[in-house]
Amino acid sequence: MKEPKYDLIDLFSGAGGLSNGFIQTDRFNVVAAVEINKSAQQTFIKNHDNNSSIILKELQSNDSDITKIDFTKLNFNPEKTVVVGGPPCQGFSNANRQKNYLISGNNQLVKEFVRAIRDIKP
Length: 122
What we know:
Elements: E1 6-11, H1 17-24, E2 28-34, H2 38-47, E3 81-85, H3 105-120
Parallel strand pairs: 1-2, 1-3
């Protein structure tokens, strides 16, 4: 019996290494990615069949900025969707112990990752 394939959304996708690993299992199809860095976007596109439409962008700014994307307006099937990603963790890292402030701008991006999960409901 053939195992089902799942749709994969890659947040903070970078060049696409994480989603590429999922593709190699032959159980996932990458349907969307969010990455604000334009160079990383270009590499992601090359690593994923040159499919530029895979990058989610906010309509008005045309940026792939997770803080501006309304995931509630996207049509993903929660029963067959998986969300992965690598939100920045520098604000939580022990390497940042010398910093005197508790809240890093990067910490807010982790909250955006959680918001995406909440709205997509995979």
